[in-house]
Design brief:
Layout: H1 19-28, H2 42-54, H3 65-69, H4 83-96, E1 129-130, E2 137-138, H5 141-150, E3 169-173, E4 177-185, E5 194-200, E6 204-213, H6 217-234, H7 245-269, E7 280-281, E8 283-289, E9 292-298, E10 302-309, E11 312-317, H8 327-335, E12 340-343, E13 346-349, E14 359-360, E15 373-378, H9 379-386, E16 393-398, H10 400-403, H11 408-421, H12 428-442, E17 449-456
Antiparallel strand pairs: 1-2, 3-4, 4-17, 5-6, 6-7, 6-8, 7-14, 8-9, 9-15, 10-11, 10-16, 12-13, 16-17
Helix pairs in contact: 6-7, 11-12
Length: 459
């Protein structure tokens, strides 16, 4: 596994291991949604189908050990099955067990350009919310929050998080890098279009959140390729800051976004059956070196940071929301010959897209911009903006599934509460990302939700 893989060089222990977990693990490594060919990979076929059949509770459906050992994976010299072997073995297998052709548990192996059929929604619903100070119980979150805040007991309520969707992907590079965390969930959407990249290098760290729309090809492509585009151009600040580095970095980021847009456009053109021809994505990326930080975004996936004034914790927004309701963004669209009109009560470009800057969106691209907002700062300037050298300074990058239901200040407050509670834990920032994701879900977010929390450390 490459260094950027969330599970690189880590022994992971899970309290449970279900087919949903297997499905999610395969999807996490299938960034472009190409699928895995179990017909030519006996090991995948063995794990995905045969072992599960060995564990069937009903003995009439359970595969016998003899049949299991007849699998081509266990036959010397036949690690790669020929088409004849695949067909012959599958015929034998089907004669014993009726395999449902569209078994949702097998879709992790299939082409994922269209979303899998697996239902990732929780089986239970949270029905009890508790005030952390007085332990009073409520049947709904709104009543609990009103009670806790009006009495100044707490800003957030407690509930059983085990009943909520668990992370499809999680990042926790332990012990190499415990200062960041990532969590995303499909939420209430039928498809997953949020994807991310975390790449940790000796000289820099790269974090990115991509929120796709009208299909997930663009966001998957961006998650798989953008790091290399940026790394190549920003290596100029890995070891030193040359003269006029801010201007050079901003130009390099703009070029990287344009290259990514062009790459997505080419991928869309070659997508199977053209099913993703209108796919697009927002992008919010963070590049950190020992000397500087670079934050760039197009669209409405937001990035914020801690901002202390004495002992008062505030939130500072580093990104810009490129949305059709913003007057300057409307003017940008109109200057390109486009128009803004309402659809579903929301201002949209050509009545379709709520963001004015995006990557991909081939049909709407003439009216959109791919120019990113870029924030650059030395490490010293960043810590001055954070306002303290005595408390943790961190950045939250998230798709709008979080920001639709939480303010900047609420997100910073909740993350800080988790980090303080988990102080000393190597997983505190991973925990913060998970709590933010699930809080957005319990508040009713109807979108995919992806959250990355990154602590910026002093060197």
């Amino acid at each position: 596994m490459r260094r950027g893989d969330p599970l690189h060089n880590i022994n992971v222990a899970k309290k449970k291991c279900t087919m949903k977990d297997f499905h999610s693990a395969l999807r996490a490594r299938d960034i472009l949604g190409l699928g895995f060919d179990r017909s030519s990979d006996p090991l995948l076929h063995l794990v995905a189908i045969q072992i599960r059949r060995l564990l069937e509770f009903d003995p009439l459906k359970r595969l016998t050990p003899v049949d299991a050992l007849n699998h081509p994976y266990f036959k010397p010299g036949s690690f790669e099955m020929t088409q004849w072997q695949t067909t012959a073995w599958q015929d034998h297998f089907n004669a014993r067990i009726d395999i449902v052709a569209d078994d949702p548990l097998l879709t992790a192996l299939e082409h994922q350009t269209l979303d899998p059929r697996l239902d990732m929604s929780p089986e239970e619903t949270v029905r009890e919310f508790i005030c952390p100070k007085c332990n009073r119980k409520f049947k709904d979150l709104g009543s609990c929050l009103q009670h806790a805040r009006s009495r100044r007991h707490a800003n957030f309520c407690s509930y059983d998080r085990s009943l909520l969707p668990q992370c499809l992907n999680a990042h926790m590079m332990l012990p190499a890098h415990a200062n960041s965390g990532y969590c995303d969930i499909q939420g209430r959407r039928r498809t997953i279009e949020d994807f991310h990249t975390i790449h940790l290098d000796a000289s820099h760290q790269f974090y990115a959140v991509f929120d796709g729309h009208l299909g997930n090809l663009a966001s998957k492509y961006a998650a798989a390729t953008f790091h290399e585009l940026v790394e190549h151009r920003l290596e100029i600040i890995d070891e030193s800051l040359p003269p006029d580095w801010e201007a050079k970095v901003k130009e390099a980021m703009a070029d990287s976004f344009k290259d990514l847009h062009n790459g997505i456009s080419r991928a869309v053109e070659s997508s199977p059956g053209g099913v993703m021809k209108e796919s697009g994505t927002t992008a919010t990326v963070l590049y950190v070196t020992n000397l500087a930080l670079v934050l760039a975004n197009v669209g409405d996936s937001r990035a914020i940071m801690t901002a202390w004034t004495g002992d008062v914790l505030g939130a500072a927004q580093l990104s810009v929301d490129h949305i059709a309701s913003a007057p300057n963004e409307q003017a940008l669209v109109e200057s390109k010959g486009g128009s803004i009109s309402k659809s579903g009560g929301i201002e949209r470009v050509q009545g379709k897209l709520a963001v004015t800057r995006s990557l991909g969106d081939v049909k709407l691209a003439p009216f959109l911009s791919q120019d990113p907002h870029v924030f650059v700062a030395t490490k010293a300037d960043f810590f001055a903006l954070c306002g303290t050298y005595k408390r943790s300074c961190f950045i939250i990058l998230a798709s709008d599934g979080l920001w639709d239901v939480m303010s900047n200040q609420e997100a910073i407050d909740l993350a800080w509460q988790v980090v303080e509670t988990e102080k000393g834990s190597v997983a505190s920032f991973q925990e913060a990302a998970e709590v933010l994701t699930q809080e957005a879900y319990i508040r009713g977010s109807s979108d995919n939700i992806g959250v990355c929390v990154v602590s910026i450390e002093q060197d």
